[in-house]
Design brief:
- By secondary structure, the chain is an all-alpha fold.
- The termini are far apart.
- The protein has four helices and no strands.
- The relative contact order is 0.13.
- 57% of the residues lie in helices and 0% in strands.
- It has a domain of 78 residues.
């Protein structure tokens, strides 16, 4: 009895399909694993921005250094110590969102208005 013969074209198509599926799985798993850091960043930003908005000091650039960010390394120094190590809203806006602290108006526009959504 003769065995089932598969043309070489079918084998190539099957091999390519398997490689594409493995690639999709790798992309999905890579994107899924990196989401935890983004979730922590968004949570830290949301908490700090809500405190800024509740304080009513959306136009005061210096006040952002008084709002501690807990449980997230806002200043990227490897420590989660709020306040003393600079893990505050000001350092979060500078290090994670690229706001500059050289000009108070520019900082308020970037951190308060764009990042936090303050009605400044």
């Amino acid at each position: 009895m003769k065995g089932i013969e598969l043309p070489i074209n079918i084998l190539v198509i099957i091999a390519m399909a398997v490689m594409v599926l493995l690639g999709l799985v790798a992309i999905y798993m890579g994107g899924f694993g990196g989401g935890a850091g983004q979730i922590q960043l968004n949570s830290a930003k949301t908490d700090a921005c809500q405190e800024l908005i509740r304080s009513g000091k959306c136009g005061d650039a210096s006040y952002t250094s008084n709002i501690n960010v807990t449980g997230f390394d806002a200043n990227k120094d490897g420590s989660l110590n709020p306040g003393t190590s600079g893990d505050n809203l000001q350092s979060l806006c500078i290090k994670w969102y690229g706001c500059t602290d050289t000009d108070n108006r520019a900082f308020v526009d970037c951190c308060h208005k764009k990042v936090c959504g303050c009605p400044v």
